[in-house]
Amino acid sequence: MKKWFWPVLLAVLFTVLSGLIHTEGLRSIDRSIGDFFYGLRSDSLTPAVKALAELGTTIGFVVVLLLTLVWTLVYLRNGRYAVWLTVSLVGGWLLNKGLKALYSRERPDLWDYLVVPDGYSFPSGNAMISAAFFGLIALLLLRSGRAGNRVWAVIVLLIILLIGVSRLYLGVHYASDIVGGFLAGAVIAEVCSWGAVRRRRK
């Protein structure tokens, strides 16, 4: 299978989804999913969700980036990994800003916000940048060939999913915003993985 298959497929799915965000059918699905997560709210669960959501904020990304740079430069001695991890984070942030401006989807007003949202809604920046940055980490772990790293990759993928779900619980995104963010971020992660694992020709 050609290496460009997955990025192209993910980009096509994102394009299709983006064309549906203003349709009543998708709005109905978004409302149903949002109502479900709104019903899960409790005083005991909310602090934990807010703490988890911090991983998908600027501060959370910067902290994890610094830790991964230490890991790649000091432990692995792999400058290429360090460069492409940084590219995935910065690229995800920049592309998300552009896509938000392009689609200009307003934040949902169906549920009370548990945090203060910033900017437009589609695609979710937290979900997209998480999928781009943490997704690249997961791909590098999966492609390392080490069985133990696969377990860590699954944990990282679970973190990505939970960050997206936390935004639904907090009431600041539609479900389609999260899915769109995951799709766009996954494209970036896959493309950056090509650069990170590219082998020099002899």
Q: Name the helicity range.
A: over 70%
How far apart are the termini?
24 Å
Q: Specify the biggest β-sheet.
A: none
Order of helices and strands: HHHHHHHH
Mean pLDDT: 90
- State which percent range the strand residues make up: under 5%
DSSP helix count?
A: 8
Q: C-alpha Rg, in Å?
A: 17 Å
**Contiguous runs where pLDDT drops below 50 for at least 5 residues:** none
Number of strands: 0
Global outline? globular
Instruction: Determine the structural class based on helices, strands and strand pairing.
Output: mainly alpha
Chart the SSEs and their pairings.
Layout: H1 5-18, H2 24-39, H3 46-53, H4 58-75, H5 79-103, H6 125-142, H7 147-169, H8 175-197
Walk me through this protein's architecture.
The radius of gyration is 17 Å and the shape is globular. Helix content is 72%, strand content 0%. It has helices at residues 5-18, 24-39, 46-53, 58-75, 79-103, 125-142, 147-169, 175-197. The model has no long low-confidence stretch (mean pLDDT 90). The chain is mainly alpha-helical and 202 residues long. The two termini are 24 Å apart.
